[in-house]
């Protein structure tokens, strides 16, 4: 499911084609339908876009509410989903997790101090745009979909929001301590300096990635051209030039890692 013309499936389609898996791209921005017959879907890939979960239910992007309905059905039956950027946020939302602006909370001020009521005590917005190193913390690094990933591999991020990791509902009558806590059904797969929750697995087949691993070099250039103001707002006047320079340095490594993630997922789904 593609939300805007300049954020396509990139390397996902050719990798799936190499495995003999047919694909269909639904261009939602030009009126293609959100799929509702889950029996026809082997895997649903939900791509990025400039909209947010806060737009769900609004008139500007009517397809978002339909996407969330389909994703919620897929979450209930653990049907394979790969969400990227906005797609990861929609998946987290459909699974019952919170999606909200990425912020850095200030340290708590002493009670009664002036700092407790000043602007300095307000959370700091942390939009994440451009190339940054991604880490794959244990036990996330042991997950099949990120096997072979190397800590501090540079990936492209382009988001204002983040999400909580989805969790299974708490049991109605949990056993008292010292019984172990109930399972969450999820795992944190990746983090960055500015955004802890970069990627997750929920249940067995539902995966969300905040960072972009799917984009080709041409698609990255399209993204820069279509949202250069966003880069300027976050990175300053040299933002577009910086991202273009970093793309030249990091793209080859990013492409190898991105291919690996898609291949890992296909092989994982075939095994499980």
- Write down the CATH topology: Rossmann fold
Largest sheet: 5 strands, mixed
Per DSSP, the total helix count is 6
**Mean pLDDT across every amino acid position:** 92
What topology emerges from the helices and strands here?
Blueprint (H helix, E strand, L loop, with lengths): L11 H7 L25 E3 L16 H15 L3 E4 L1 H9 L4 E3 L1 E2 L19 E2 L2 E7 L18 E7 L1 E3 L22 E5 L8 E4 L3 E4 L7 H10 L1 H8 L3 H33 L1
Parallel strand pairs: 1-2, 2-11
Antiparallel strand pairs: 3-8, 4-5, 6-7, 9-10, 10-11
Helix pairs in contact: 2-3, 4-6
Notes on the structure:
This protein is of the alpha+beta class. It has a single domain, classed as Class I glutamine amidotransferase (GATase) domain (Rossmann fold, 3-Layer(aba) Sandwich). Helices cover 30% and strands 16% of the residues. It has six helices and eleven strands. The strands form four sheets. It has a five-stranded mixed β-sheet, with helices on one face. β10 (199-202) and β11 form a beta hairpin. α2 crosses α3 and α4 (217-226) crosses α6 (239-271). The protein is globular, with a radius of gyration of 19 Å. The mean pLDDT is 92.
Q: Which labels suit this protein?
A:
272 residues; Rossmann fold; two-stranded antiparallel ribbon; 6 helices; alpha+beta; five-stranded mixed beta sheet
